[in-house]
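Consider the following input, taken from an annotated entry for TM2 domain-containing protein (Enterococcus lactis).
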Amino acid sequence: MAKIVKLDSSEVVIATDEKEIIRVPYEELDWRPEVHDEVEVFKDGESLIITRVKNSSNSVEDKIHINVINTQNQQVSTSQSGRVVNKLVYVLLALFLGGLGAHKFYSGKTLMGILYLVFSWTFIPSALGFIEAIIGALKPSDSNGNIVL
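Applying the prediction step yields:
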């Protein structure tokens, strides 16, 4: 098996197994030669026929890449800023016990629940609870009847 050992400006230098050096002009090759390419050299009378040997290299470019996506187990991460609560329970708590902050305790907002409880004598938390009951009733729920607060 012969090998390309040098690329000159006008010709390709090939070394054969018999320790011969063959110089071939670029025009006689129908492919782009590179140093260390393995070639086969055939003599046809006075002319030479040179073909490149396909290498079975183990480089990363030669390997098969299979990209498999398992659509059965994909998890979509949705960022939620709040807590998931049952819509019906939240609306009923806000409507009937909103003045005491029961809906705030239920939704995990303990500090706001305490503030509602402290200021419940002013009836302002009752008005806010009524408004939050309406807002909660208008929020779209998921298939389980939950909303994010």
